[in-house]
Amino acid sequence: MIRAFRALVARDLTLAARVGGSGALSLVFFLMIVALVPFALGPDLNLLSRIGPAILWLAAVLATLIGLDRLFQADEEDGSLDLMTGAPVPLELVVLAKVAAHWLTTGLPLALASPLFGLLVALDGTAMAATALTLLVGTPALTFVGAVGAALTASIRRGGLILAVLVLPLMIPTLIFGVSAAQSALSGTVPFATPLTILAALSLIAAVVGTLAAAAALRWSE
Predict the structure, then answer these.
(1) Radius of gyration of the chain from Cα atoms?
(2) What is the distance, to the nearest Å, from the Cα of residue 18 to the centroid of all Cα atoms in its chain?
(3) Integer Cα distance of 38 and 32 in angstroms
(4) Which of 1, 202, 9 is nearest to 100 (CA)?
């Protein structure tokens, strides 16, 4: 099972590297949102620093959607998904491997790049570190939630808009606790560990429920 999991992750990472993947597009989209918001709000650095974590988190949520519609659709189109479904490996393991590869090429780069992009919204060092940590902990939840929508729309051509409508409401709890955790590191009214722990719990729950739900959706679509 472990060898199969590693092989599936390596396969998707290789494919992402060859065709460019969605990681670069997500980073560009992330940068565009973070760069445009200061122009809309004006040169008020105090305002930008207060809402900076929320801007980064909102940009991360929207950037995560980039390429999610192709998570299973590409394999559905070329027949690879049928081979994976018929393989002796559990379909849940296949889903887990593909979601892990997608997070490594999309969610992880967003979290690592957030301190640099935090300069655009006037965040100090503490705020940058806290926001980056919350994104590192919370983006897996966004990816696993998105995987359920990707599995439901795998057989629908150009299902990106439907996918966004399906999964965005389910991403709101992660967004709320991610912003709350980042803000608590700045204000100190709530211990930083409290919302961060809840955010980690959301990622763990999403990993379990999202994997099972996405596998069930793929079986249902056959």
Answers:
(1) 18
(2) 21
(3) 11
(4) 9
Task: Indicate the pTM of the whole model.
Answer: 0.90
Q: Which residues of 89-109 are buried (b: 16+ CB within 10 A; e: fewer)?
A: bebebbbbbbbbbbbbbbbbb
* Cα distance from N-terminal residue to C-terminal residue, the chain: 24
Cβ atoms of 101 and 216 closer than 8 Å: no
Q: Are 145 and 171 in contact (CB under 8 A)?
A: yes
Side-chain-side CA neighbours of 111 within 13 Å: the count stands at: 20
pLDDT tens profile 83-141? 777 777 888 998 999 999 999 998 999 999 999 888 888 888 888 999 999 999 999 99
Identify the CA nearest to 131 among candidates 60, 62, 45. 60
Q: Are 105 and 23 in contact (CB under 8 A)?
A: yes
CA dihedral 145→150→151→154, nearest 10 degrees, is 180
Joined together, the tokens standing for residue 176 give 């709320």
And the tokens for 33? Answer: 């949102």
Q: Are 61 and 176 in contact (CB under 8 A)?
A: no
Q: Are 69 and 153 contacting, i.e. CB atoms less than 8 angstroms apart? A: yes
CA-to-CA distance for 71 and 158, rounded, in angstroms? 13
Q: Which residue bears the tokens 């988190």?
A: 57
Give the whole-angstrom CA distance, residue 203 versus residue 141: 4
The angle formed by the CA atoms of residues 14, 220 and 208, to the nearest 5 degrees, is 60
CB-CB neighbours of 209 under 10 Å: 13
User: Are 57 and 178 contacting, i.e. CB atoms less than 8 angstroms apart?
Assistant: yes
